[in-house]
Amino acid sequence: MKRSTQGLTAWGFAALIAIGISGPAQAAQCGNTSSGFGSWVEQFKKEASGAGISQNTLDRAFKNARYATKTISADRNQKSFKLSFDQFMQKRGAATIISKGKRLKKQNAGMFDAIEKKYGVPAGPLIAIWGMESGFGSFTGNQHTVSAVATLAYDCRRSAFFTEQLYSLLQLIQKGWISPDFKGAAHGEIGQTQFLPGNVARFGADGDRNGSINLGSSADALASTANFLQGHGWSRGGGYQPGQTNYRAIQGWNAAGVYQKAIAKIGAEIDG
């Protein structure tokens, strides 16, 4: 993930949350085809301008925004979550993630020890998420993020949720933390562990302690993921298999049961 020239300190993230925008959720009319997207954008920009997003930010953010057909296709065809557990593990390359994950745990022992000391989350589930979300940072997405999030905000299926994500994304752009033409995953996920914009603002952490938060950095992405899990109830020293104390925090990461079980299984294999 590219870091802006301004950067954003940990204090800046706290301020970002504190000044959170509370504009109208979705007065613009949603739609399920591309035909109404342009009109929706214009109406949304009016609402966002009245809710504290500057005109300059809106102009820059939506200059190259288009209806994202690939995002809609991905949203309608998340077939891997319907696989059996064994099929899902095979499709996600679980054996490779476990093998490489063990090596990465050893190579970065100091980083993982520091994260566990601060957040109480061991290396295993963090590495499982890292491997499944981006192949350990090898691919973090190639879709125009504003287009992806705006399309999902316009789309009627989950309009309210993604309208909130769009406001968060515009805040990040307004703060200068990411470029208006930043590219990420199909649903607007950002960085090596694929945070939605709202979670970047809420849980972003400076893992490498360089004064800025950059989810393209493995240290920042993993610390942010640990912070997310802690924020969803992770209890230091507790187990994280199904039925154990911390499994609920894993459930907060992804709603698909097969994905939750994969994190727990892969994490346990890595942690030994």
Please explain how this structure is put together.
With 272 residues, this protein is mainly alpha-helical. The protein has two domains: 10-75 and 141-190, Bacterial muramidase (Helicase, Ruva Protein, domain 3); 81-138 and 204-271, Lysozyme. The chain contains 14 helices and two strands; from the N terminus they run H-H-H-H-H-H-H-H-E-H-H-E-H-H-H-H. Helix 11 crosses helix 12 (218-231), helix 12 packs across helix 13 (247-253) and helix 13 (247-253) crosses helix 14 (257-271). The longest helix has 16 residues, at 159-174. The model is unreliable at 1-26 (pLDDT under 50).
Keyphrases for this structure?
272 residues, mainly alpha, Helicase, Ruva Protein, domain 3, Lysozyme, 2 domains, two-stranded antiparallel sheet, 2 strands, disordered N terminus
Number of strands: 2
Number of self-contained structural domains? 2
**Oligomerization status of the protein chains:** single chain
H/I helix tally: 14
As a whole number of angstroms, the C-alpha radius of gyration is 19 Å
Mean pLDDT figure: 90
Please provide the ordered H/E string of secondary-structure elements. Answer: HHHHHHHHEHHEHHHH
Which strand order do you get reading across the main beta sheet?
A: 1-2
CATH class group of the largest domain: Mainly Alpha
CATH architecture of the largest domain: Orthogonal Bundle
Poorly predicted tracts of residues: 1-26
Would you tell me the structural class of the helices and strands?
mainly alpha
Protein name: Lytic murein transglycosylase
InterPro entries: Lysozyme-like_dom_sf, MltB-like, SLT_2
Keywords: Signal
Signal peptide: 1-27
